[in-house]
Amino acid sequence: SSGPWRALLTLLGLWPGLWPGPGLALAPRPRPPPADTRGDLDSVIHLAKALLGDTKAFLELLKSRFPAEGEHKLDSLPVLAMSALELPNIQASALLPRLGSDLLRYQRLLEWLRRAGGALRGLEPDLGALRSRLERLRGRLEHLVSRLSLPRPAAPPAGAVPVSPPPVSPWGAVRAAHAVTRGLHLYLDWAARGLVLLRNRL
Question: Which N-terminal stretch is annotated as signal sequence (predicted)?
Answer without folding.
Answer: 1-25
